[in-house]
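Posting for a labmate who doesn't have an account.
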Amino acid sequence: MDTHEGSGSAAADVDPGDAPPDDGDGFGGDAEEGAGQRARHYSTGKLTVAQARIVDGWRRQLTVPDRRRWHTENYRPPASSSDCIAAAVVDMLDRAEPDHLAVIGYAARLREEIAVERGRSFPSLSVVSFYLPADYAARAETLLAAAHAHHVDVLDQVRERVRAELPGAPVAQQAIRMLGILVEMGVPSRVYRLPVGTLARYAITRWARRAPVTVVAAAVAHGRQHHEQMHRARRDMGVGDVRS
């Protein structure tokens, strides 16, 4: 029934928030969005085993050459796993933006799943950095801030309800009643300030059944729409258009 800022505690392990740019998965200079707006860099935070396997599948697809489709030097798609995740987040915000309680509930389930998996061996890819265009970054951060405020409001409302139902009752009795109501509502009793990485993991799970080739195509389209420069040369992605 308290508010946790997600800093310097177990919550920070689950939702670490923004991380320094990762040159292995980021694209540095592509942060420019034009008109003085800059893309925002984020980290997914620790992926679950299932999510890591999904993203690994996307990365494998990024290494598959297609002479007819990708007009790059090595015939591989001009995108990275960062683009795959950004495309998934943008698609979710445009087509299926979750409501506040959905975000709160998903974050709680994610914390529980990672807690169960803690100590097990994760696949090689457990954290991914990505960029969001400035307008989508603002939308994502606004959604998370609103979800946090809604969570606080719900707890306050339930607390007042319990006090009205059990005036003068011992604090322990009121706490048990409050927890019971929250369980019925499916609302966690503890508030966490969620980073954008929470939405990224939500979006990865949402695209879990989407074919990797479809995800990569969406990532390339996302890059063409939002990047002002092509990616740097990397072994797992194509390098610019070399023919018209």
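Reply:
Got it, the structure tokens are right above this. The CA atoms of residues 71 and 244 lie 8 Å apart.
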